[in-house]
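Render D-mannonate oxidoreductase in 3D.
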Amino acid sequence: MNLFDLSGRTAVVIGGSSSLGGAMAEALAAYGAAVALTGRKADNAEPIRQRIESAGGKARCYAVEPTSKADLEHLLQEVAAWTGGVDILLNCPGVNSATSFFDIGEEEWDRIIDVNAKSLMLSCQVFGRYMVERGQGGSIINLSSVSSTTPLSKVFTYSVSKAAVNNMTQFLAREFAPARVRVNAIIPGFFPAEQNRTILSEERVSSIMSHTPMKRFGDPTELQGAVVYLASEKASSYVTGSLLRVDGGFGAMTI
């Protein structure tokens, strides 16, 4: 028995054009899932689609504004027409900023909360309702952050938005469980990406390393095992409401 076979499954990756979302999308495709990649512009996800198809996988790119419910509903219709249904939803859009608390403006607050939390709520409404009403189960995987549980300097709004991701994950896990729709989150440690390069000063990197037992950053490929595990009903059929850390031991560190 292959616990990780995703053949015949379809995964929608919100934020599939990002470095972390793209790496996880490639893993889902490598284990047999057809993958719908989204970005604000379809072309943003094109390099990932090409890598997936070069490796023998199946993928399409879609332009989606993740904070628009109408866009997400249209995406569901398009993907269902392409493959016949949606079995896996991976939510990984994200924006960040390095602003001290007293300098946070309302526009910055609204932008980060909208992208990191509102978009997840909307996608879970659209795709979660579809999975629940279809009655064939499903897996929703949300991308959180170590800052969701441990206060980190300079990223107040981002941390609040990711704490909301954890809360929504566990709330929806309870709500959707009777329909066999599992809802889990991955808590990544520090993976250098475009959204966080501006806050990775030399001093901050030194502080991160001193609080990470493995003494290094993560590589996006190191999230692939976690996402395939949570996507596979065979491998994780009794796992819901879980916040799975992939953080090099950051969450286990005290002094």
